[in-house]
């Protein structure tokens, strides 16, 4: 959304704040017209709010969004053995800033099991694993990497808000009349008490502690020798382990070990190589979510799918795109683009035979592709925005190499060796940047003929960019 119109992302952030309960958890889904929604125990839903805020601020440099205010939802919390509740929920009387909404979400998700990993509860990104932590003992390795990434990236925002609050104290202090020392002291003390409802130092201390503990637990307990495990269930049995007969390896733990930059250096290479060896299916031109598929072990409704269907060992495109990003981060451009081609729906319809096998539209991104039996290569649910948005982001940032941070663009393409020249017409607000990529021995970038290392983006006008890569 941020590349099409940044206001969409801003509006979505504010909308999601309105669907967060006061305790920090969020609605898993809702109907905007009727306001009917579901409260659950899923462990990752709430963390996508701070993730989106990080993306927005890093892209725009606009910190003011942190101080926008939105209401919470008000409801009785789920009872001990209540899995979920569908209802129309009331609004809480008081509002919270976007910053406060994010802190509530992060703190609610920062609940750890005996191995130091976050509780998976009734499922994480893979909500089909809804029995792994049903008794709220089981832990998620993938969620550990995701939370680690968010904690690291949200820390500068906590620091920013802390400095902003201190500046407010100084401004307030200066504004109060110095004629009455006693009155000034009382007013300032009250103001300090008001803003210290948020204890920034305590938040930072918790973040640092959790970052350190997660890194240790993820690289020690979650490491399985050749890759990272996926989870540990309520009984202490591992998921995504070489010791297991089914679901020996899961894609998203390996991808996010790299995306989050949490994995120890040697483990990055080892886990990625394992993902390539076990999960990439060249015969059927797809990337499995996990393998082998589940037949005997019951991890939740994922186990009710046939082998190779959807989350049960099929290609779940959303996750496969994360593997492209991991390859690109590691500098493996050829491998990244080869996986990208497997994701690209048009690649499944280049011949009549392929199209007949794929069955679904070749011009939209599919949620999944079957990987087993007579249905191998058959596309599933299409028009899937979760996959398409990640693919769009991957194309721009990790293949074309267009990275925008606080309104400044850097271009470092990560394309296959065979690419010699190509053009991109990039729009930013009302401006157009015609970018020509040319392969040369000497790398440099020209903006309207002038050599630059980065481009300060303008909201209006037309600009010529040449990137020698």
Tell me what you see in this structure:
- The chain has 469 residues and is α+β, with helices and mostly antiparallel strands.
- It has a domain at 409-468: Sandwich (Maltose phosphorylase, domain 3).
- The protein is built from twelve helices and 22 strands.
- The strands form eight sheets. A five-stranded mixed beta sheet has the order 17-18-22-19-20, with no helix packed on it. The protein has a three-stranded antiparallel beta sheet with strand order 1-2-4, with no helix packed on it. A three-stranded antiparallel beta sheet has the order 6-7-8.
- Helix 7 (251-259) packs parallel to helix 9 (317-329), helix 9 packs antiparallel against helix 10 and helix 9 runs parallel beside helix 12 (385-399).
Note the topology.
Layout: H1 6-17, E1 27-30, E2 36-39, H2 48-60, E3 69-74, E4 85-88, E5 90-97, H3 98-109, E6 139-140, H4 141-175, H5 181-195, H6 200-220, E7 231-232, E8 238-239, E9 249-250, H7 251-259, H8 265-279, E10 280-281, E11 286-287, E12 290-291, E13 315-316, H9 317-329, H10 333-343, H11 352-358, E14 368-369, H12 385-399, E15 402-405, E16 408-411, E17 421-428, E18 430-438, E19 444-447, E20 450-452, E21 455-456, E22 460-468
Parallel strand pairs: 18-22
Antiparallel strand pairs: 1-2, 2-4, 3-5, 6-7, 7-8, 9-12, 10-11, 13-14, 15-16, 16-21, 17-18, 19-20, 19-22
Helix pairs in contact: 1-2, 4-5, 4-6, 4-7, 7-8, 7-9, 9-10, 9-12
